[in-house]
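Morning!

This is the sequence you dropped in the shared folder:
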Amino acid sequence: MADAPKASNMPRIMTIFMFVIAVLILFEPNLRNGLGAIVGYGLEPLIGFGGQYPIITLFATGMIMTGLTIVIRHFFVDYVEQVRNQKIVSAFNKELRQARLENNTFKTKKLTEQQDKILKKSMDVTSSQLKLMPITLIIVIPIFAWLSVFMSKIVSSAFSVPWAFNADLNAVIVLPAWILLYSLISVPFGQFLMRTLRYFSFKKRLDQLKAEGK
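The structure's back. Tokens below.
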């Protein structure tokens, strides 16, 4: 039993460790450039296009990175169970809040007795996400390091957007413009892919329940 707390803390420790590594790489140019150069040996011949089409490179990189992280999460997270736990926690909190508003001491006491059990369901949802965070960071950190190196070598980084005809990919607007553009590309694709995979997960579970006659 003494090993249980250590085991439960491992995902959090690994996540913190990976975040520290990510910050070091982000703010230490030598580490970032070194890692980016190594990753570039594989990615640059595939999607670098000799630096001629940086927008297409950003688009392709966004699809690869987002696709990999979401597919990994899809196969290791039970979305149906996750949503079920979220619904249970939400319904419990609503009932407890209502009981307290009505000053129903009996109901509040009964619900409070179950609070630890419900809290565990909430922790299970958080824990499943934390366990996968180090894996996704292992994918994200090297690819972003390569993008940083790749974009710094672009000779002509001007591109047209709805608000500017001659925007600079390397201009800094809070963050470098290429990161903002990357987000505009990858976030919608990620949402679409995640919703599609979840749809098939729920459909598969419903089909199983129908086949079992439940």
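Headline: The radius of gyration is 23 Å.

More detail when I'm at my desk.
O.
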